[in-house]
User: Fold these one by one.
Assistant:
Number 1:
Amino acid sequence: MIREETEIAVVGGGLVGAAVAWGLARLGKRVTVLDEGDDAYRASRGNFALVWVQSKGLGMPEYAAWTKRSSAGWAGLASALKDEIAIDVAHRQPGGLTLSLSDDEHQRRIAQMQRLHNQHEMARYPYEVLDHAGTRQLLPDIGPEVAGGIYCPLDGHVNSLKLLRALHAALAARGACYRPNRPVAAITSRGGAFVLSGPWGELNSEKIVLAAGIGNARLGPLIGLDAPVRPQRGQIIVTEKAKPFLRYPIVTVRQTDEGGVMVGDSLEETGFENVVTTPIIATMADRAVRMFPMLAGLNVVRTWSALRVMSKDGFPIYDQSTTHPGAFLVTCHSGVTLAANHVFDIAPQIAAGRIADDLLPFSARRFHVPQAA
Amino acid sequence: MFRRLPDAAGDNIAFTINGRRAQALAGDTVAAALLGAGIEHCRITPISGARRAPYCMMGVCFECLVTIDGVGNRQACLIPVRAGMRVETQQGARAIAEESHA
């Protein structure tokens, strides 16, 4: 049996856990990351890789501000990774678009953006409503069915597999320990320290950060943290590599830095079933081809599905345990977009021992307020 | 590098490789025809820029991608050569935006 000790244990080695762990290691903390194995659900290996601002925050303006902040911090994150471990994660921020395939859809999206920006204390961001001709100026290859688009200059994308690899290389370079194949079965307190254990052995730590994605739902209650998260399936298509022709990422279609075109346009509540289904893939492909007819000529290389880590209201949860001081929880479904905040804001707060007051709206306590009649 | 078997038979077929006239035998795949014509590589990879040639000859490895009659990323080992076919070695990723069917 393995017995190890560390200052801060991070449970979860995906984009969220790796970002927080690297941020902590940059502050000189001794960090051990416990990860599961290849049988884990691993949203970080299946995501769509947008750094996305537009449309986020309806129902929680603080989330719009938080997202905007991470988008602004992303260039700094990319250059810090390049400086520390010489990996280019292909961050691009040319602005991005949402496209509509009918006037109805277009009007619905415009109304949604107006509702979003009319919220009290909304952190507004610039966006532009474009008709077909305006959209065509940015994207000459759109099809005749595109009714219009919404452009937001803050939107962008990265190569999220390179990001995950870079974060792991960076935390290793800072002396943090990465331990795969160490699922956490139990967490207990012993003499003011935490003991994380599983079939592999145990790890003692002074602090603990839960960043285990859907696994947080089970682990949180062990140390007085509530994490009502569930899997929400998204399916993705990727084509063969082509020379760059899509200048801007679309919320459902983007061309990667290496040339493949990704299409991701689905949300399903199907529990832990991470399979692909032909009707969804066919609908996604059809919509993508109506947006960009030339995509019809590209061969599909792979399709897959991944499970988003979705909270009850869709917003992140940042929390600290009142019953178990030193225990923190970090979970969201936008581990790419929010990566800059996780490195530069969340990690320093955890290192200092306290989630900042301005992040109180993200506490899971928001789920415990009795609903007003 | 490659020579035809002494008993290879079939009608001669004229096609072009990068605009130059070339000969194949009826029944050849495009990949076999390219190797028979003495090409050393059929494409440059999109990411690292390495040269690649037909390898598995059975549709599995995707190394033999070429542009055929203006359409990129065709698997040369799975396509029979036809008279008048225009085959081009591919430089990097497929240029979908420049293809006529797009």
Number 2:
Amino acid sequence: MSATSPGTGRRIWLRTLAILVAGIAAVVALVAFLNLRGESAADEVAASGPPSAETIERGAYLARVGNCVGCHTTPGGPDYAGGRGIETPFGTIYASNLTSDPETGIGDWSAGEFWRAMHNGRSKDGRLLYPAFPYPNYTQITREDSDAIFAYLQSQPPAVRPNRPHALRFPYGLQASLAVWRALYFRPAAFEPDPAQPADWNRGAYLVRSLGHCGACHSPRNFLGAVAPASEFTGGPLSAGAWYAPSLKAAEEAGVGRWEIGDIVALMQTGQSPQASTIGPMAEVVFRSTQHLSEADLRAMAVFLKALPPQPAAADDGAEPSAASLEQGRAVYEAQCAQCHGDEGEGAPGAYAPLAGTRAITMASSANVVRMILDGGFTPSTTGNPRPYGMPPFAHSLGNADIAAVASYIRNAWGNQAAQVSALEVMRYR
Amino acid sequence: MYASNKNAASPCTRRSLRMPLPAGALRVCRRIAAVAATALAGYAGVALGAAAPAAHAAHAAHAVPDTIGQSVLACVVCHGEEGRATPDGYLPRIAGKPAGYLYNQLLNFRDGRRHNAAMSRMLAYLSDDYLREIAEYFASVDLPYPPPQAPAASPAALAHGQTLVRRGDAARQLPSCAACHGPELTGVEPAVPGLLGLPRDYLAGQFGAWKTGLRHAQAPDCMAEIAERMRPDDVAAVVNWLASQPVPADSRPAAEAPEPPPMRCGGVPQ
């Protein structure tokens, strides 16, 4: 028999329950507080008439800096009408309709509500927004720039296209889960210029960190999809691992600390520079966004990127390829690749990327090398390079073993040195 | 994503130096080469920046012609040299098709109206102007055609195919192929493709793609409507007959349609 009387037992039980309820209430209150911090009361400043043509034009420019159209448009669909699916490890997020249609777009939003979405990550109806919409970056945008983008979007023709619900796995689809995520990882913030740095560095920092949201791809994400400030710009996988966005800080990857400013500008403006060319998702960024930016803004971004503190990439601890696989790779190279990339992997300037000494070939992640061999592609056509040269896809004509062998070969020929690529990896990237 | 190189022409490789040097020595060599290259470029008065690739051209082992044929070499791996793919494979010949048709298809692939992952990825970041140039290049290639495939259908089916191609079936609102694709079936300028000289499987694949919604054209999508009205045996008969016909000596598209087309098609200027 128990020594405790039924009354005492009930009291302990009630007390535990009370503590539990109070604890939960405190956590909920904390999460709610953390989610709403930094929000100003709906600041509906009476609009001083319709926005000027200049404001709209500036908004159009800023929307290009952010490449809003890239996610908020389905290929071939009306601009900004949304619907494009963004693959994440948690499911698919469907971009929303940003056109001026009042029913399905944001035609009935106010500039203040748009600002709250950009700065605080909350929708007009109060729902928390998923950070696939990069408000952890956009939060630093100025109110003036937000208003200009809003004015531009409102000036665009309406397109009727109802938003498609996201397809997220449990529990990521719950607003409560998102509230916890935001409590942990999101804090609204204004851009703070660094008085110790020159004006162009500060302008560059604003563009790169805020609207340009470069770190959204070029940073690793933790298991909940958040970017730790310390690892900003140190590279991360993209599109479920189909691509790797290289580190902007590592000299072994895409760091530009040793580049001339003009070359960094050229890469963003034309898609090519003497040291590098862009392909895949970065080609999209150049095609839709950076080629349209002003020379001054590109220079500012270049100044900021060049000054990023160098941080070596993680050591490549993969295995060395076997002699047999290198021999197989050399045979594939001579038959399929040497015609354009040259017998010594020297490439042809402006047309075919050199492979000898090329960081994209030798960096630890083999994702982009394999992706290029599988899919081929063109660098983007830009005003500065309107007729880019292309590489054919080899996914249909070469098997996994041949692709692995040739990738291992180009990573280790002509003075290059990198880990082998296995047929299993190629299969995974297919 | 980035293809970057520290030594554009790579004078500092183990092979070019013919010495088994350690990586450190190669790096030093590259450094020296880079400094020398910069000095040379400066001496030659070559501006660095957007035009910088030219500064490195001196190191190129092979010069690449600045021609459209060279820049679209990527296409010919699948579509054959100069776009001359034959009915031996699945992929269509593109050489000599009307430029407007090719341009429309490039747009359709890029903008998601036609679905082929390889084509969409290749074209994703190419401008309208460049796509038009590519289309005009392949349209301008004039090459003889190989003989057609042997028919793989019964004489009755072939006769049914020939009837549909030449006369259509008014009762089922099926216009003849010839009414739009030209009396010789070699297409009509500027945007209606010829139907001969293509692999049977490719032709059948297109009907399947229209019927299942994988292939679209600019609205109104006339071929999708026509494919919808065709029965499987119609499709088999038509593609077998088309694939078994030789291409006439003059394979060029007709300059204009002989009579007003029976339907409106979004991709074809009216």
